[in-house]
Description:
- Helices cover 28% and strands 22% of the residues.
- The protein has a nine-stranded mixed sheet, sandwiched between helices.
- Helix 2 packs parallel to helix 4 (79-87).
- The mean pLDDT is 93.
- The chain has one domain (17-27, 40-206, 215-231): Dihydrofolate Reductase, subunit A, CATH 3.40.430.
- The chain has eight helices and nine strands.
- It is globular, with a radius of gyration of 17 Å.
- Strand 4, helix 6 and strand 5 (140-143) form a beta-alpha-beta unit.
- By secondary structure, it is an alpha/beta fold.
- This is Pyrimidine reductase family protein.
Amino acid sequence: MPERDWFEAYALPDRETPRVRANFVTSIDGAGTLGGRSGALGNETDQRIMHVLRSLADVIVVGAGTIRAEGYGGAALDETDVAWRRDHGLPDQPPFAIVSSRLDVDPRHPFFAEAVTRPLVVTHGASPVARREALAEVADVLVCGDDEVDASAVVAAFADRGQPQILTEGGPSLVGDFAAAGHLDEFCVTLSPSVVGGDATRIVRGAPEADRRMRLVHAIPDGDYVFLRYAR
Length: 232
């Protein structure tokens, strides 16, 4: 598929309306990881789409568990994507934000130490003050909620910062929080042609059971993979 078509396929209807878009890969039997990592299920096109979605985002919001499992140290867009963002009046690199209730993440972690633009930490008012202060040395800290991170407050906080287009890459509990709060606006799913078995988790976890129906925007095949985009 020509490069320009991926940006067209995932184009946003507007940049002003606050929007949460999730991006995941899953096996055909519903596993979100293989060997503990989601990247093991994807292919080169899946990676390219991930970078397109990051290019379109104002901020990339990720749970602390996903940071520990997947790394994210030094994650950055390449020159082609940077040029696209410049052409559309966006900063060169979208910042990454880590969501954590306990703040049990080392300020020396590569997520902070190797960040190409100042990252963010999203937590709640009851999180440990000393850890919050330590992380404030290496990141902007947003307090969203009193005793737990409030997904609605997260969306509002980023909108207030001029970053209404949120991309989340997990983990499953974080996406579940957005879904439960009614803020999961788009779901982009790579369907991997793998049968994994085992005890791998689903790609959404923790949200109360409900029929949160979405409409299919596209289904694009790529060899044995299928790239799905759903929207509310």
